[in-house]
Each structure stands twice: as C-alpha cells, then as structure tokens.
Amino acid sequence: MILPRKTALIVIDVQQGFNDPRWGARNNPDAEANIARLLAAFRAKGRPVIHVQHDSAAPDGAFRPGTPGHRPKPEAVPHEGEPVYRKSVNSAFIGTTLERDLRDAGIEGLVIVGLTTNHCVSTTTRMAGNFGFATSIVADATATFERMGMDGTMRPAAEVHASALSDLRDEFAAVVDTDAVIAAV
C-alpha cells in the first residue's frame, strides 16, 4: 500500500454512546484498539489526524451533547491541535467545512476509520471518493451492529460489516487493514 504524500486519518464517531446495549450485537471488538494504533502511527509521523463526532439533536439520542454518550471513547480522544468536526447527519462533509479545509491543507488521501461501517463511515467514505480523494477504509478499524433485514431476519453484525465494505471496495475506496496502513505511514 502506498499513501499519497498528504494523507489524513479521519476518525468517525468513536463515541461512548456506541457502548449502549440497545445497539445490539457488534462485530470487530478490536476496532478501537486498531484505531488507537493508527492514531499513534499518524501522530508519530506528524501526519494529519481529524476527528468527527456526531451531535444528536433527539432528546433521547445516544450522542446528545452534554451526555456521557457524546464523549469520545478513551482510544480516540483528540489531542490538542487536532480538529474536531461536529455533524448531525451521516456524512462528515455535510454541514461542516471538512472538504474545504482538506483542500486548503493540500490533503490528497484519506484513511477512514470509526463507527459504524454501514452508516456514517460508509456515507463519508462514499462522498470522499466522489470528491476525488484517494480514499482507504480500514476494515479492522471499523465496526457495526446487527441489523434487521428487509425480510425480517436479523443480519449478524459481521455480515452487515462485510456487505458495507464490499459495496465501497474499488468504487469509492480501497479496503485495507491496520497493519498495511501502519506500514505505509
């Protein structure tokens, strides 16, 4: 794997609210540890790190500002100087200055990690690819939850995750793993 000279790590919605059991069964329990490894690698090389957090407007939202669920998980706490973009929809690009700020900084490539694979991570990845960024999504640094299928059958989280990644692969992003990214950093 070769990363463009100016590549940023984008950490999406790694927030305490995803610890709530109401989400159901989850895949990839090592996602946060892999995100921490990627953060350490990017920080050690002085590469840009960008955080995205979801701000829920619903009174019972898991990510409502001012609630414990809104806080980042310990593995993904932003360091001083690392920008944090706040969004209220699935894409980190909608309602934020993220695209303009990336372009102003000369960023060519994006490595995307976070929660959940089939929602905010996927939506942001699709838009990043459509905007022309050399985009990679890190399969073992993303995760999701089980989901009810259209036929009423509960789809296991691993299946939902794999399906989301396969929909992104090659059309919107390269699907990679943590070790490959760290080796390329």
- The value of Rg in angstroms is 15 Å
Quickly count the helices: 5
> How confident is the prediction overall: mean pLDDT?
97
Task: Estimate percent helicity.
Answer: 25-40%
Strand order of the largest sheet: 3-2-1-4-5-8
Which regions have little confidence, pLDDT < 50, spanning 5+ residues?
A: none
Helix and strand sequence: EHEEHEHEEEHEH
| Distance linking N and C termini | 9 Å
Characterise the protein shown here.
- By secondary structure, the chain is an alpha/beta fold.
- 29% of the residues lie in helices and 22% in strands.
- The protein contains 5 helices and 8 strands, in the order E-H-E-E-H-E-H-E-E-E-H-E-H.
- The strands form 2 sheets. It has a 6-stranded parallel β-sheet with strand order 3-2-1-4-5-8, sandwiched between helices.
- Strand 1, helix 1 and strand 2 (49-54) form a beta-alpha-beta unit.
- The radius of gyration is 15 Å and the shape is globular.
- The model has no long low-confidence stretch (mean pLDDT 97).
